[in-house]
Automatic annotation (TrEMBL):
SUPFAM superfamilies: HAD-like (SSF56784). It comes from the Bacteria. InterPro entries: HAD-like_hydrolase_sf, HAD-like_sf, HAD_2, HAD_sf, PhnX-like. NCBIfam families: PhnX-like. This is Phosphonatase-like hydrolase.
Length: 220
């Protein structure tokens, strides 16, 4: 099959996370003065829901919308302070270029807000690398809903969802791909979730790294 589109996650998949997301979440909990008794539950929820829209995660953790918005803003501010230290996953940029050279368009997606997404792209020098970048606010809903993938399909005028491949490091990435009808919904082992979790979520393939995706899709 000729794949027309690859939809790739950012943090943990194409971009090394190195604990930055967890550190930013911790800063958000500090900002709201969350007590020690509540932190373990909240931190576990953050780990379990890696890849999802950050504001939706905070809405699940805090009953008041004002608290969720405050936590989301604190998270974004903390991550933006750390973003200068981010680096690509080894081979990620080469993989993206190989896909494009082989005729597969590339969309980068994230659960971050647009400002954090753009800061991350600027720090990496990737502002013009992908054919499209999307965050949840630009698609309707974040992962594990299919919206990010389907929005990429619509914006890039892809004719058939069966020519789409999705790759990410979380179960939410896998579910997003499956729910969008992608033929390939691959998990990668460079981020939040392990092979057992990705397989249990229904991953069509489990890859050591995003660097393996071009080969999977028939590109050299």
């Amino acid at each position: 099959m000729d794949f027309a589109l690859a939809v790739l996650d950012m943090a943990g998949t194409t971009v090394a996370d190195d604990g930055l997301v967890v550190r930013a979440f911790t800063a958000a909990l500090d900002d709201l003065r969350v007590g020690d008794a509540e932190r373990p539950r909240m931190q576990q929820y953050v780990l379990d829901t890696m890849g999802r829209s950050k504001i939706e995660v905070f809405r699940a953790l805090f009953a008041a919308e004002s608290d969720a918005q405050r936590a989301n803003a604190a998270f974004a501010a903390a991550y933006d302070e750390l973003v200068g230290s981010v680096v690509p996953i080894p081979g990620a940029e080469d993989a993206i270029r190989a896909l494009q050279e082989g005729g597969t368009r590339v969309a980068l997606t994230t659960g971050f807000g647009a400002g954090t997404r753009d800061a991350l792209l600027d720090a990496l020098g990737w502002a013009d690398l992908a054919d499209l970048t999307l965050c949840p606010a630009e698609a309707g809903r974040g992962r594990p809903h299919p919206d990010l993938v389907l929005t990429a399909v619509l914006r890039l005028e892809i004719d058939d969802v069966r020519t789409v491949a999705v790759a990410g490091d979380t179960t939410s990435d896998v579910l997003t791909g499956l729910r969008a009808g992608a033929t390939v919904s691959a998990g990668v082992l460079t981020g939040a979730h392990d092979a057992a979790a990705l397989t249990a979520a229904g991953a069509t393939h489990v890859l050591d790294s995003i660097a393996d995706l071009p080969g999977l899709l028939g590109h050299r």
